[in-house]
Structure formats: C-alpha cells, structure tokens
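Encode chain A's predicted structure.
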Amino acid sequence: MNAQEQKPLEEILGFLDGKEKVVLSGCGACATIFRTGGIEDLADMKERLETRGKEVIGTIGMPFGIFACYLPMSSGFYEQNSDILEAADAVLGQSCGDGIQAMREYLEEEMGIVKPIYPATNARGLSSGGPVRFDERCQACGDCKLGLTTGLCPLVQCPKGLLNGPCGGTREDGKCEVDPDKDCVWVKIYERAERLNQLNELVETMEPHDWSKQTRPRQLERKPIDLEEKLAGTKEALESMGI
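Encoded structure for chain A:
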C-alpha cells in the first residue's frame, strides 16, 4: 500500500489562500489505514479548516475498501457530489497523489469540472506491515530481483542499493554503515540463504539493474475485472470472519 502522512496545516492553508469554499475528498483504502483521508479524517480536517476561517461546503468520504485511485469505484462518489464540486473554489485531496490525479482527470475529462485541487498528504512509498508500523519494502522498479536475493530487496533496504553483496563499511556486528541501528540487508540475505541451503546461488554476479523499466510515466493496459464478482467474494470472506 502507499504509505502517507498528512501535510502540516500551515502548508495546506497556504495552498488554500484566497479559496473560501472548499470540498474535501478522501479515500477508503491506503489513506484510511494511514489516517490521512478516511471519513473520520475528513471530519477532523473540516473542523480544523473551519476554525481557520475556511468554509467547507462538503466532504466526499469513501467507505473502507473504496480506492480513490480506482475510478470504477470512486467515480460514482464524484458524480453524486457534482453539485458541491461545481460550487467549490478548491478541492483538497486527502489521499496519495495517485488518487488525487485520478480524481482530477475524471472531474475534468468526464464531468467537465475544472477546479484547483491541492494535496493534503505526502506519500512515503510502497510499504507493508501494520497495524502500527509500516516499512517501505518495494520501489516498483519494474525489474524485480527478489528471486535472486532470498526475498529481501537490497535496492530498498540498502541505502546504497547494492546488488552484489555488502559494502566495505558493514560493521562487525552486522549493522549498516549508514545507519548503525539498522541490520545490513546483505547480512540478512546471507543468513536466509544459509537457512535455505542456497549459499551457492549468491556466488553468481548479478547483472546491472535495468533502470529503463522505471522510466516514467509508465502505463499498463489490462482486461477490466468483474467488480461485482470481486466485491461478492470480499463480502463472503468478511462474513466467514464474522464481520
């Protein structure tokens, strides 16, 4: 998921300078988990902005599991709130930049609504874990090497992004030269390879990383999923968990 944190209120107010009527728009996925754009977070932002003289004329909250970045899910919420979007001086997006840009594109190209849209969050990268601590583990490089590094990514977990073993500064206790509180990922790769009886596979030198696969902006096309079928499966799974 896309880790994120809320921008300082003063930075947000700087974006909204001269804009009195504001609409808040959130996300029921990553932004809800990171407490930047869930329904409760929109209510909190509304209160904070109103104490600073802004008129929040509406909020577009999305239930958990509704992704702002996935338009087949989120677009209906924009359509239902077209009146407040039309009346707004600005929209404050309380999701990652991906969700904000998906919203901007839909409003302009499908609904004919052109409004200033500002971010309320800073994205911090693809991270996993939870419910409290989340660690960045993937940079979506397009040329995954996890199969050669025992499932640990040195491009992310090594500050130098080394692909063929540790640097000469690795500490005697196995800690990182750059961050003495952090384990050297190549020590961890070696230890895991030893447990898997795969040490011989670390002898081979990896080819230089193919950074051309990270040339931006990237684009993919896929056959659309059957959303109703997938949501029915989600409902069934939740019911089996007693939720």
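The first strand starts at residue 2 and ends at 6.
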